[in-house]
Structures are given as C-alpha cells and as structure tokens.
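Review session, final week

We close the course with one last complete record, chosen because it touches almost every idea we covered. It is Transcription factor CBF/NF-Y/archaeal histone domain-containing protein, a protein from Solanum bulbocastanum with 160 residues. Go through it on your own first, then we will talk.
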Amino acid sequence: MENNSEKSAAQSSAAYPTLSQLNVEKNKQEQLKMFWTDQRREMENVNDFKNNLLLQPTRIKKIMKTDKDVQMIAAESPVLLAKASELFIQELTLRSWLNAQENHRRILKKDDVTDVIMQTDNLDFLVDDDANATDGSTPSVVPFYGSGGSNGQDGNNLDH
C-alpha cells in the first residue's frame, strides 16, 4: 500500500516543478534579461561598431563571397552579421553556462550546449531533423566539428 502512495507522490512531484526548480528558472530569466539590457546599453553607447567587434567583418565578407550567387555585398552587411553572430554566440554560451551551473558544474561541456539547443524553441534551426528521421527517435542537434568545416574540411580555407 505504501508502495502505491510513494509512486503517486513521485508522479505528482514530477508533474509540478519544485520551488528550487522555479527559482533556478527565474534566475535564468533574470540573467538573460540582464545580458540583453547590458548589450543594448553597450550598443547605444558605441559610435563605431566596426572597431568594437570580436568577429572580423572582412572574414564574414569572405564567407559570404563563397556563395556563387552573391554578386555584391553592401558595406554594412558584414558588420551587421558580425554583431548578430557575436550576440548569438554570447547568448548561447550564457544559456549553456547557466545549464552547467544548474547541474552543479563549473566546467562547460558540449552536452550543456546541446541541452540548451534542445530546450530553447528559437534554436530549433540547429536541430538536425534528418539525422534520425528513419528510426523515429528524437531529433539530434547538428553535430559539432573540431576542424571547423561542417564537411570535415579545414574552415580556414576561405580564400576563394
């Protein structure tokens, strides 16, 4: 009899988040809100984006030119894409770091990034639906490649 009541208590606790889980989620939301507030404040105070970027617009322009359909590129486009990429990477890293902290770790792992991608709706474009379409299992995250290129080639060969 106790066994059935223990099972139902465990099932009901799984259905409702605990107070600590709610606090963790609230903390995540606060951290993300602070991140975007800080980024917005920083962008409002910067006069020249081109000199304050972590990613080089010239590098992004080279990547854009690898597409044979691209004829001309406006001067602002690589700068805008560099800033957007920078913000994307920073937010994904912050979300992954919060996931690592939630799991009581101080080391960021690939699994933290994967978990964040799977849990965040606006990161669905990073989920590889075709990888597991034949076996019916859960879609996986697009694989990471150590050498840079998605086809296994060195990602530094962009001098086309």
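Two points worth writing down before the exam:
The domain at 31-141 is CATH 1.10.20.10 (Histone, subunit A).
The chain is about 55% helix and 0% strand.
Good luck, everyone.
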